[in-house]
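Second attempt. The first submission of Pyrroloquinoline-quinone synthase had a stray character pasted in from the spreadsheet, which I only caught after the job came back as garbage. Lesson logged: always re-copy from the clean sequence file. Corrected sequence (247 aa) follows.
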Amino acid sequence: MGVLSPDAFEQRLRAIGAARYHDRHPFHRALHDGKLNRLQVQAWALNRYYYQASIPRKDATLLARLPTAELRREWRRRLEDHDGSEPGTGGIARWLKLTDGLGLSRRYVESLRGLLPTTQFAVDAYVHFVGERSILEAIASSLTELFSPSIISERVSGMLRHYDFISEETLAYFKPRLTQAPRDSDFALTYVKEHARTAGEQDAAAAALEFKCAVLWSQLDALQHAYVEGHPPPGVFLGADTAEAFA
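This time the job returned cleanly.
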């Protein structure tokens, strides 16, 4: 494949999301359509916590490598979005309110004791990818945010409609993401289109986005296998008794 124009390259990237984003996964569909029980929703929130809590580590790794103050200022906002400007603020704190609302011990959630092994392996692979690959690939891997606003709107409305143990306060994490994700993805998309100038660079950026889609998809694969198909690995979260034993 030869070098694509910036607009054609953008369409290539968007086609990856259309084919590979995790909104197509059966666990995702079941979550939004009200087909999961409380334990399954708890397991999703518990495992997703590790992903959310690792995003600032990923962004700090990239921030240290960015060559200009302009780029560092832009990327620094992502750290504050997730870590907050003071205790009790930011995306991680809001995610803990979600797990609180689902009845999970905060100490248990933060301990990471109940994680599925695939969750940890996939998330750690993403952090390592961003630290080890080119800046172009690292930024391109964040472009799943192009596809997140629609999934967030669907998630909030579906979970509020279908689960009586979910409230708007429980889902407070998601509202700021409706503005943060488009802002971040607009910047990342502009950067990738400007800096992927050769066919090889465009291929590398596209592969980075495919990798990130696989990171998200594999986490749902693990949840499906453990909590829907009934094959939980040893030591993972199995309900209130597991969490209370640690708390």
